[in-house]
Amino acid sequence: MKPFDAVLFDLDGTLCERTQDTDALYRGAFEDAGVVPFGEPDELWASLRGPPDHDDQVGYVGAGFARLAARHGRSEVDPLALAAALTDLVDDRQVALTDGADAALTAARANGSVGLVTNGPERRQRPKLDALGITDRFDVHVYAFDLPRRKPHADPFERALDALDVLPERALYVGDSLSYDVAGAHNAGLAAAWLRSDVGDLNGYDPEYVLEALGDLRGVLEGDP
């Protein structure tokens, strides 16, 4: 008997990655805000704490710019103005499938039902799906930002499983975040396949499967050890 009746996927960092030129994005923000550039894009990304805050994206990026400005002696700069300029330049259509994503989706479809559970809002995530050409490869789409609760709460997973009429113990969730994807799947009673995103330890999490590459999902669904 196959191990699962449904496979649910995370989107960002799991099935897709951004392709927009981050250096051009960074420099464009300074140009549009009328600010003499300082720092480098990698410094800004490293200054951001935790996952993106879809409730206050400008505030989230602005906090990163504020930390960066302090390190470069540019306290006169308005970090929120820079953040607003950068956010306006982000194009959610500039994405590409991650390595193995197409094969993973194909394997999941051959196995049974397929769903998407993402913490992002539909207004930002749907353009990515459409640009990637994978919108119709899912039987259900759950945009948790638009719900009262997001991952790692169980609610987004439960909504997907209710729509698919699949029991939690018969479903697998695939994602790249231990604290959101693995934790959320386990809170909802699903098995988790963690797509390894770094070489660090598991920090106490215990995913049923660790995928070194997304293409390894086929072996999991076929019951390979």
Q: How would you describe this structure to a colleague?
A:
The chain is α/β, with parallel strands linked by helices and 225 residues long. The chain has two domains: 140 residues, 3-Layer(aba) Sandwich (Rossmann fold), CATH 3.40.50; 68 residues. It is 41% helix and 15% strand. The protein has a six-stranded parallel sheet. The chain has a two-stranded antiparallel ribbon with strand order 2-3. The two termini are 15 Å apart.
The chain-level mean pLDDT equals: 94
Radius of gyration: 19 Å
* Poorly predicted spans: none
| 3D shape | elongated
CATH class of the largest domain: Alpha Beta
Distance between the termini: 15 Å
- CATH superfamily of the largest domain, by name, is HAD superfamily/HAD-like
Please give the count of helices.
9
What is the H/E string? EEHHHHEHEHEHEHEEH
CATH architecture of the largest domain: 3-Layer(aba) Sandwich
Helix content: 40-55%
Structurally, the number of domains stands at 2
Structural class: alpha/beta
Largest sheet: 6 strands, parallel
Task: Supply database-style keywords.
about 220 residues; alpha/beta; Rossmann fold; 2 domains; two-stranded antiparallel sheet; 9 helices; about 40% helix; elongated; hydrolase; EC 3.1.3.-; HAD-like_hydrolase_sf; hydrolase activity
